[in-house]
Amino acid sequence: SIVAGRTIQMAFWKGWDDETADGTIKVDWRDPENAAGLDLCGGRSMFPHANGRFGDPRWQEAQAQKHGHTDHEVIKLADGEGFVIDGDQAYKL
Question: Rounded to two decimals, what is the model's pTM?
């Protein structure tokens, strides 16, 4: 779901993912052009697996500030949640 959004940079919010894919690539993921998603969500980005401390709105807001994602909506989805875009309506399930 991360790639469906405006940017894939949310993948690095938790600090779990290896930005070099085990040393096989060298990409500046902070460059918005390099980190562009498919932008299928009406200008929004997705943050899936927002469980436990990652589901805490204060932590999420701190990450948005830290990574410069306050300029657009980031949809935070816990496991089992979904997001629907139906014409001009958009909502979580």
Answer: 0.86
- Residue 54 to residue 60: CA distance in whole angstroms: 7
Query: Distance between CA atoms of 89 and 64, rounded to whole angstroms?
Result: 24
Give the pLDDT score at 1. Answer: 86
- CA dihedral of 32, 38, 41, 45, whole degrees rounded to 10: -40
Using DSSP, state whether 67 is helix, strand or coil: helix
* Mean pLDDT of the 39-66 span: 94
Instruction: Write the Ramachandran bin of 6: left for phi over 0, alpha for psi from -120 to 50, otherwise beta.
Output: alpha
pLDDT band at 18 (very low <50, low <70, confident <90, very high): very high
**Within 13 Å of residue 45, how many CA atoms lie on the same side as its CB?**
22
